[in-house]
Design brief:
It is an enzyme of class 3 (hydrolase). By secondary structure, this protein is mainly alpha-helical. The protein has a domain of 89 residues: Double Stranded RNA Binding Domain, CATH 3.30.160. It has 6 helices and 3 strands; from the N terminus they run H-H-E-H-E-H-E-H-H. Strands 1-2-3 form a 3-stranded antiparallel beta sheet, covered by helices on one side. Helix 4 packs across helix 5.
């Protein structure tokens, strides 16, 4: 009888035991829900790097490729999508440039889709998608400067010089080939 009482208290203890460093103890009010912190963008900047998570459509699916049972059990592939035409958090100039640069990546409905399944972690794949999106937006935000007329003239002169040198080299090689030929009847 004493052994069963010991066994029942032992099982109760193991089921009720929580470590002092468990997540519930360290962060009692936390959740795994993704939220965007409050942010007021600078009106002078076209893009500050801030992407509102509530305006994005994020889906998770099973990843392809090797990985054993982990591939079948865990949905780590991330599809991040948003409708480019309705993205009010983007500057209109950036939207136009994104459409110009990445128009082929748009779906028929007008969604820009970014995928990542590079790692076995859902959070790292989501971070990878967000980084890809930031890089795309930053590339679109950069305005390409037109070179000065002096620089354009210098470039044109260099191209002409290179073309002249190439033709001169071809003529010299043709002359050397001509010298290696045996003389013909007309030459004698």
């Amino acid at each position: 009888m004493a052994s069963t009482a010991f066994y029942s208290t032992l099982t109760k203890r193991t089921m009720a035991y929580k470590s002092a460093i468990s997540l519930e103890t360290l962060y009692p009010n936390s959740s795994l829900k993704l939220t965007t912190p409050s942010f007021t963008p600078d009106p002078k900047e076209k893009f500050s790097g801030f992407i509102p998570m509530e305006k994005l459509d994020i889906t998770y699916s099973a990843s392809s490729g090797p990985g054993g049972q982990n591939v079948n059990k865990v949905h780590t592939k991330v599809d991040l999508r948003f409708k480019l035409s309705e993205a009010d958090w983007l500057h209109p100039d950036i939207k136009e440039k994104l459409l110009e640069l990445h128009g082929k990546k748009l779906s028929k409905e007008g969604y820009l889709i970014i995928r990542s399944d590079t790692t076995r972690s859902q959070q790292l794949n989501l971070a990878d998608c967000l980084q890809k999106l930031r890089n795309m937006i930053r590339d679109a935000a950069v305005t390409k400067r037109e070179p000065a007329p002096e620089t354009q003239e210098r470039i044109r002169q260099r191209h002409l010089k290179a073309a002249r040198l190439r033709v001169a080299q071809k003529r010299e090689e043709a002359h050397h080939r001509e010298l290696r030929r045996p003389p013909t009847v007309v030459d004698l």
